């Protein structure tokens, strides 16, 4: 696989070419994903739940993310690699810079942070200092205790308008990818159309530029609950590599997510 950069994603957005993404946490799976030409991998702090068996992502540490970033980079030298900054490691722009540097030095090409326009200064400071940023909006799992659960976000008109404004503000601050989790498909489509940067969705309907799945959900092996919008591609194909290939093909052809895996 050739080395993938943010420029490839920008070009795919302009061409209307949909792209798949997955989480990965270790070298073996990263190598398998790379052998299937998965362009973008996320070392998600979902590892707190799917690897560590924690009830949420809050206990995940910076050291955990650095360790797993190194593992994934070793297995996939060519993917565009994005790593989550864990809870409270980007509470101020200064802390974000210090901690993001360690994640980039571990092999990431981009960091992902959760939150709306309050993060604009942080995004500006990071990107001005050459740390590319993906901004995660909608259901932001690190906010689970403030929100009171894992709930669809953006159903009310005011909330939807705020999310669109947040996305625009974060793009203007320098964010190079926006990720939307668990939002109604019509809102995700509107945000995707309104932005120049690529938008990746999970539980955000078929109209975002890219899709992402937690790999344990793709294989139906999550210890915890499996969200309605996820799909077990291993059950459909019976083979790990074929499951990845089928997921990628279905995203590229616009077949996944279908209506059954979309939040209306
Ligand atoms: O941590 C993670 O795996 C994520 C995805 C759900 C997008 O943020």
What's a quick, concise take on this entry?
With 264 residues, the protein is α/β, with parallel strands linked by helices. The chain has twelve helices and eight strands.
Structure description:
Helices cover 42% and strands 14% of the residues. The protein has 264 residues and is of the alpha/beta class. It has a single domain, classed as Alpha-Beta Barrel (TIM Barrel), CATH 3.20.20. The chain has an eight-stranded parallel beta barrel with strand order 1-2-3-4-5-6-7-8, surrounded by seven helices. The longest helix is centred in the middle third of the chain and has 17 residues, at 157-173. The chain is globular and about 45 Å long. The protein starts with 5 loop residues before the first helix and ends in a 12-residue tail after the last helix. The site of 3-methyl-2-oxobutanoic acid has 11 residues, from strand 6.
Residue share in β-strands: 5-15%
| CATH homologous group name | Phosphoenolpyruvate-binding domains
Helix coverage percent? 40-55%
Total domain count: 1
Q: Report the CATH C-level class.
A: Alpha Beta
The fold-level CATH name is TIM Barrel
- What is the overall pLDDT average? 97
Which descriptors apply to this entry?
TIM Barrel; alpha/beta; binds 3-methyl-2-oxobutanoic acid; EC 2.1.2.11; eight-stranded parallel barrel; 3-methyl-2-oxobutanoate hydroxymethyltransferase activity; 264 residues; 12 helices
Summarize the helices and strands and which ones pair or pack:
Layout: H1 6-15, E1 19-23, H2 27-35, E2 40-43, H3 47-50, H4 62-75, E3 80-84, H5 93-105, E4 110-114, H6 120-128, E5 133-138, H7 144-147, H8 157-173, E6 177-181, H9 185-194, E7 199-202, E8 210-213, H10 215-218, H11 233-237, H12 240-252
Parallel strand pairs: 1-2, 1-8, 2-3, 3-4, 4-5, 5-6, 6-7, 7-8
Helix pairs in contact: 2-4, 5-6, 6-8, 8-9
The protein binds 3-methyl-2-oxobutanoic acid.
Residues 23, 42, 44-46, 84, 179, 181, 202, 212, 214 line the site of 3-methyl-2-oxobutanoic acid.
């Amino acid at each position: 696989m050739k080395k993938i950069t943010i420029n490839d994603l920008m070009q795919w957005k302009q061409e209307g070419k949909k792209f798949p993404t997955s989480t990965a946490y270790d070298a073996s799976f990263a190598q398998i994903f790379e052998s299937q030409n998965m362009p973008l991998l996320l070392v998600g702090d979902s590892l707190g739940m799917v690897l560590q068996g924690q009830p949420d992502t809050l206990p995940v540490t910076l050291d955990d993310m650095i360790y797993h970033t190194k593992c994934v980079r070793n297995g996939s030298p060519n993917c565009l690699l994005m790593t989550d900054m864990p809870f409270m490691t980007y509470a101020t722009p200064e802390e974000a810079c210090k901690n993001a540097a360690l994640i980039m030095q571990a092999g990431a090409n981009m960091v992902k942070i959760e939150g709306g326009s309050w993060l604009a200064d942080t995004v500006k400071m990071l990107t001005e200092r050459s740390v590319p940023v993906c901004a995660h909006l909608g259901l932001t799992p690190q906010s689970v205790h403030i929100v009171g659960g894992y709930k669809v976000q953006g159903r009310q008109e005011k909330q939807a308008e705020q999310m669109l404004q947040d996305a625009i503000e974060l793009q203007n601050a320098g964010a190079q990818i926006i990720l939307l989790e668990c939002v109604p498909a019509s809102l995700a489509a509107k945000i995707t159309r309104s932005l120049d940067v690529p938008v990746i969705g999970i539980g955000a309907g078929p109209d975002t530029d890219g899709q992402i799945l937690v790999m344990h959900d793709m294989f139906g092996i999550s210890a915890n609950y499996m969200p309605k919008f996820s799909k077990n591609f291993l059950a459909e194909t019976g083979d790990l590599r074929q499951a990845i290939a089928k997921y990628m093909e279905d995203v590229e052809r616009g077949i996944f997510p279908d209506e059954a895996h979309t939040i209306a």
